[in-house]
Amino acid sequence: MQELDARTVREWGERYSNWGRWGEDDELGTLNFITPERVLAACALPRSGRVISCALPFDARGPQAGLGGRYNPIHTMLATGADALAGAQDFLPGGFNYADDAVTMPLQCGTQWDSLAHVFYDGKMYGGRDVRLVTSRGARANSIDRIANGVVGRGVLLDLPRTTGQPWLEDGTRILPEHLDACAERQGVAIEPGDVLLVRTGMMTRCLEQKSWKGYCGGPAPGLSVHCARWLFERELAAVATDTWGVEVIPNETRDCFQPLHMIALRNTGLLLGEIFALDALAAACAEDGRYAFLFSAPPLPITGAVGSPINPLAIK
Amino acid sequence: MQELDARTVREWGERYSNWGRWGEDDELGTLNFITPERVLAACALPRSGRVISCALPFDARGPQAGLGGRYNPIHTMLATGADALAGAQDFLPGGFNYADDAVTMPLQCGTQWDSLAHVFYDGKMYGGRDVRLVTSRGARANSIDRIANGVVGRGVLLDLPRTTGQPWLEDGTRILPEHLDACAERQGVAIEPGDVLLVRTGMMTRCLEQKSWKGYCGGPAPGLSVHCARWLFERELAAVATDTWGVEVIPNETRDCFQPLHMIALRNTGLLLGEIFALDALAAACAEDGRYAFLFSAPPLPITGAVGSPINPLAIK
Amino acid sequence: MQELDARTVREWGERYSNWGRWGEDDELGTLNFITPERVLAACALPRSGRVISCALPFDARGPQAGLGGRYNPIHTMLATGADALAGAQDFLPGGFNYADDAVTMPLQCGTQWDSLAHVFYDGKMYGGRDVRLVTSRGARANSIDRIANGVVGRGVLLDLPRTTGQPWLEDGTRILPEHLDACAERQGVAIEPGDVLLVRTGMMTRCLEQKSWKGYCGGPAPGLSVHCARWLFERELAAVATDTWGVEVIPNETRDCFQPLHMIALRNTGLLLGEIFALDALAAACAEDGRYAFLFSAPPLPITGAVGSPINPLAIK
Amino acid sequence: MQELDARTVREWGERYSNWGRWGEDDELGTLNFITPERVLAACALPRSGRVISCALPFDARGPQAGLGGRYNPIHTMLATGADALAGAQDFLPGGFNYADDAVTMPLQCGTQWDSLAHVFYDGKMYGGRDVRLVTSRGARANSIDRIANGVVGRGVLLDLPRTTGQPWLEDGTRILPEHLDACAERQGVAIEPGDVLLVRTGMMTRCLEQKSWKGYCGGPAPGLSVHCARWLFERELAAVATDTWGVEVIPNETRDCFQPLHMIALRNTGLLLGEIFALDALAAACAEDGRYAFLFSAPPLPITGAVGSPINPLAIK
Predict the structure, then answer these.
(1) CA nearest to B104 within chain C
(2) How far is CA C60 from CA C65, C69, C281, D105, in A?
(3) Nearest CB to D136: which of A69, A87, A88?
(4) ipTM
(5) A70, A71, A75, A80: which to substitute to probe chain C, counting the most C Cβ within 10 Å?
(6) Mean pLDDT for the stretch of residues B88-99
């Protein structure tokens, strides 16, 4: 295989770019591949009516350990049942009471979508938009609110460790296009344009089983090789998500670029990336019924100007 | 009509209770009405493949003005494009950069689900669970994370002002069961068990048009009469949501109980309530194609122990 | 008087600059004027031993209304007495319980110091440091933590409305050097190098009396004229604080520069500015004993990289 | 020594109680010992005019590791110099720019005062006030804002490891009254009524030297024995602070009561406790000039209803 460096990332970025493909003003990127027809087709997939969440619970036991200033969700109560007992709600008539709460959280601390404003280089993000548009006031382009009418379509799970008989892929395992194709074939599912591809590496399974997130955020991990950039582009996928922190393999395949696949996929291809997906329940269900394609719905919170969003992705089988 | 007081609320609560209906351990409440069969049936509804968000943008321009300690979402950046320009990310190799962000927000400050731990009286919440379970550490029962595998099903919009030819219902307008039935009939849609009912009053339309949220939170509002409690119970609805702050009419119909329908619906019926839904785009689409039933998906963020969740509800037509 | 514009601000900035005065590495600015000798002298001022806080309470009733993304402090409980009653702390032995809490607040939402990294122009802040040093990661120079060993010294109150017999100065009142000198003279106090000057305009008195902060943040206000820039520089003051949002008069005296005195004082003179000081109790005490000089202590929280800090300034008389 | 249990804590609590000593409405507790005369006397202590901060920097490198839901301060920028470069502040005229920021932090995550509402048992806190007064809405009695006009007085440092020739006291070291007396004697300082006593154990020195806070929060630590309860009461101290997480020795001296000294001192004696004080610079200065008494100023932020406050304690020598 060719040796990769920052220059190659730029070359591939240019090669696998969708800038302008859907007009100058496009901020949806590959979500454009999810045409209304494909939404309808996806709605025809469910057979059992079972709905399965792919979200990790959002709480203090999450994976964050400080990298990049990220922390786990901080959930605080504004009003409680205990307050009611203590008389703090006696201003309400009739003995009727309530509880209320709030959260402080990095938008990418748990199960989440990266927006197309999340990464950039050479002063530009997806669509050629200037990085100066992303300041303390938020992102004025490519922000997560632009995809409020999504993400609904056909989801496909590729359960790599299950098809190879491992409990999980080892850290550092590079997932190449041929691995994805082989997995799809063994599972008997075809990957189609407009699909939301969910790739299970088993890394989260291991962390939960070992009750340790050590290394999960930013450490060595199995993940997509940057050599998948072309495959993702040509397959015309709408989104790709994994059960890892960062979709792609760590250590990265080039020393002089951190997360090269992010750079190409988000900035050039305009491909939505999903991370920290909890795929075990879905994987078990797919293994049980042998159906790896399903209706998928994972709406982001349209936080104005945000560069990511926590989500609760649902598979409807 | 019978005069209502706190005693009546308790009587009706007992009458329209689903406690124990789905077993002692049930924490789903009326979401149990969304059987797998009904999910499948809902998936067969879409005709156009169009997806429409019912979320108000989450930002500082939201409706909150301090009531109950609630405030609008506070979005802050952890890393920006501007930082990159300023050299703050030069520790990353190859000129590759990123943006990251966080939010601080009350969970019920915008478009949201109330969990079944949100209101209570006489020391009990839905299922007879003790309010002592809701403390500063969160809710240990009936919390929003319990419905992580939801909410997906058949959605029905009742667009009250459109069927009566008004731009919006006046503040204080009581919506009675007969109004709901009449609206459904005029729209040519049947309300079925397991439905997620979206009731448009036009109040949000007015606030957005007048660029003022004054009175929206906690002030006089159109909304469901507490006399709908029986109707909601008997129709076996899964959830009810409105474009208002609190689903039900304000002023409340009894002086000695604030939000009596909340008390009965959430605590006794176990009915999921949705608030601050942005229904204008959906209403326009329904008016256009004449179809008021659709596939509906509005997964909550499974924040452990939370008593509500911001959501981005999607209608798939 | 000369007409002021942005060019004049730059000229005066150059004229009243202390860059380099205390060495290239200086980040204390005019706090350097508070020599140990002056601290000792200030300690000799108290006669009664009375201590008076000049802080506005930090809570939701504060003055912020959203300007610049600022909001009032959000105080949340992590553990409560009510929790204890509800049994949430039964894991602690012996029936012993506790309460705990947290705050989310802009650092300049209430009584506060501006750090020397708070304002800048032409790419430079105090000491000629590049504004690129102030990013989402905080300020890497001139931040508030650099003055952790302060602010202790001689405080002097100038109670302008009291000496002129008004309840408060009208909005838009320009305070000129001669007003300050006249007030000092009438009060029988001399202003000395190294002093922390507290200027009472009465604006906060009015807001509290009228129970309205309308216009307090960013609206028309009495305050120091930009013509005080030279006076502040020549008097070698250590800090200046007022009972207003922004120290200086609004409307600003030049259309093409917002807060010109901030620019000159913070960026060039390196003068610490204090805002939203609650001076009524101190003013009453000074009027009572006729002594307008006192020992003053207002330590900032050394939040690393912060550009301001909430404070509780104390006058010891 | 007598074996301690929860019953003894209650007995001693009753014995060393100051409830009612300063009237029914008192919320100052032992701060009442700091009379104006004593403030004046303290002002006469400084000899050099040097001011020394006893605060640990407030940042992500702080000691918190999640215990009790506490986390280190989260500092976020609302506006930056980088923004200015990127043009995000071009709405401001004349090329003048600014930075602004915010913090989210537990009030007791760093250098701090415990308020008299921080701990309680048998349904009561200091002064016999009901714990029902401490709910999600904050503390309605004994809160930190009640001591806004403080804390200023005579400070005394007892530098235990220095007088015994150790770098730091070992974890679990019980500090008894005789150790305190011996240390004071060796240092040549008398402890007087109304003093703020700062006890250096060296634990923070060790953590900083070893670059690890492991065990600092809640783990074994040197600290005051609960046998100091009487001594603290009889000496009529105003406050006691240490360089540890919790003032008192851990493991606690009774299995069935966590932090027994907290219970007696805060709830019964009404003694202000300070924690996570950074005492190394002060200790060095005291060792140098041989003077262990100084003017001390550590104003809390008067956050309404708060049960603690971050502080920057200053020693003026």
Answers:
(1) C104
(2) 10, 15, 21, 17
(3) A88
(4) 0.97
(5) A80
(6) 94
